[in-house]
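User: Could you check the structure of this?
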Amino acid sequence: MRGISRLAHELGLSTGTVSRALNNVAGVHAKTRSRVLEAAQRLGYEPNQAARTLALGQTKSVGFMIDLDPDTAANGDNFFMGVFDGVQSVLTPLGLDLLVLPCPSKQHRFAYLDRLVARRLVDGMILSGTEQHDPRIDLLRTAGLPFAALGRSEVEGPFSWVDLDFEAVATASVDRLVAKGHQRIAITVPFGELNFGIVFREAYRKALAGHGLSYDPELVLQTGFGEEDGYFIVDAMLDNPDPPTAIVLIFEAAAIGIYRRLEERGLRPGHDLAVIGFRDESAVRHLRPSLTRYSVSLSEVGTALARALVAQMTPEEPAPQLLQIKIPMSLIPGDSDPPRASS
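Assistant: Sure, the predicted structure tokens are below.
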């Protein structure tokens, strides 16, 4: 049975009384409320979600905005699927649905989000791919829509975010390579103004300084997410008059391309160039020599994001609770970053 009118007719009550009972609104006798709820369960009542949204001002949905660009489509699906699983583990018991909102590659991100907010499609929003100065954050603040971000930003004022501990990865990687005799260490960062790339680069710079090593901007290589990005940076690195002896990657798939191009040049990964990868993704586990890389629980990332958002959607205090969390990553040692070979 579907529809509140048919449920009201079955019970001999007004639709207003049945609606108030179903939505736990004051003014309904306890026995009447119990009778309505029992009948709704027995008869398989399913609410009209559109009408419920208008009546309560709630959609019972949370949006997760991602960028639908070629890099994300080709390489980022495993990452986001793991995060989505963690988000849903928190939302589902609360009766909240997760809506994935992919922004087309040719659509301006701000305009896309502005349209979603104006339509009141969701009760809360999770952003990804935050930029150093991300106008979407101020848009959500102005709209009064609860939100959390996968990534930090340097916008004014606090907001809830969850991020990977890029600083710890950069520092641990540089420390490890320096201890093995490497001094010319390259890194990769993403194109554009994505904030995690800026965080990673600055942590790398500080780690070098901690060892008395100078920062060379030519060793900071901008790349995309994919295998081919790794392939095409090998020549640029090794044809440098003072080439690096090691590289730290921020995208895992790039390691596959680096291995392939080194072998084409008659060089050996892990011998002629030390490589430290990023995430422990299935695509890089077959590489030989085994890739030194980092593991992280994507489910934990998603769980933290959902909790950071829900804390604002159901605040116990008048002011929303803001959470800012860095998720640690654990080193998985491999054979791709041995001590520097003697000249």
